[in-house]
Amino acid sequence: MMKNSIKQTVFLSVFMLLSSAYQGYASDLFSVVPWNGYTGAVSLTFDDGDPIHLDLVIPEMQKRGLKGTFFLIAGNTSRQEEWKKAAHDGMEIGNHSMNHRRTAELSADDEITEVDSAGEILKELSGQPVMTFAYPFVEITDGLKARIEKNCIAARGGYGQHYYNPESQPDWLNISSQTTMTEYDIEKYKSWIDQAMYSGSWTVFMIHAVEGSAWYQPVPKSTFLAVLDYLKENEKSLWVAPFGEIAAYWKAQKILESAEVIKENNNYYLKWKKPDIFPGGVIVKIKVNSGKHIIFHKGNELKQITPGVYDVSFDAETIEFSN
User: Is the pTM of the predicted complex or chain greater than 0.85?
Assistant: First the structure.
C-alpha cells in the first residue's frame, strides 16, 4: 500500500514538474497589437434614442462607412423596427436604463429594473446581446455598478480620464467620455480626435442631439458632418468603432497579456478564460516576438496576416507556439 502511494506521489511530482516548470510570461512570446492595428481609437456614442439619430445621424454615418453606439431608454423608445434595422446594419445598441431616472429615486429593486429588465427589452429589440451601459445623468452608484457588472462588459461614464492608452488600467464600469456641446466648433472636436490619434489612445464622444432636434445640447449639423468627414479622412490611422467593440478588444488584450503560459517539451501553450459575459467572435491581433514559432489552434496552423502578426480568436481560450 505504501509503495503504491510512493509511486503515485512520484508520478504526480514528475507530471507537475513537466507541465509547470516553465514560469514564463505572455510578453515573452508575443505582444497584442493595440487598437486592432490602428494608431488610436474613437467611439461615437449617442444618448436617449432621439429621432434625429434615425433621421440624420445614422444615414450620414452609413454614407461614410462609420459605426457608433446608441444608448436607448428601454421604456421610452419609439420606431423600434428602425432601431432593429440599425442594429442589423452594424450599429451597437446600448442600455441607457429603463426610464432614465435619477439615482436618488432608485431602490434596490428599481436598480434591477433599470439595468437587467431594460437590457432584456433592448436585447429583444436589437436581436443581439446588449453588453454596454450608459449612466443616466452620469450618476454612478455602487448599486448600479453591481447590476451592470452582472450584465455588461463596460459602462460609459462622463468625467475623469478622457484618453486611454493601451497600458491604462481602466474602471470598466466607468469609462470616461467627452460631452459635445452646442457652442463647440469643429476645431474643438478635431483637437479631441487629434489627441487620440497622436497619443495612441482611445477617446469616447458623448453626443445627445444634432441640429433639428429640441433635445439636449444639439450640435450644429454642419459641425457634426465635419466631425464625420474628419474621422473618415483619418480612417487609416483611427479605429472608429462602437464603444462595446473597442472595449471588448481592449479587455481581451488585458486578459491575453496576463494569460497562463505552459511549456511542454519545446512547445508553449497560452491559456485563458473568456468571461461569462463577453461577446462572441472577438478577434485579437498578436505580434509574435520570435520568427521561429509556428502558431496553432487545435492542430490548425494560423496564417500570418502581416509578417509576425496573427489574428487570434478570443473564443478559442488556448493557442500553441511551436518551434
Answer: yes
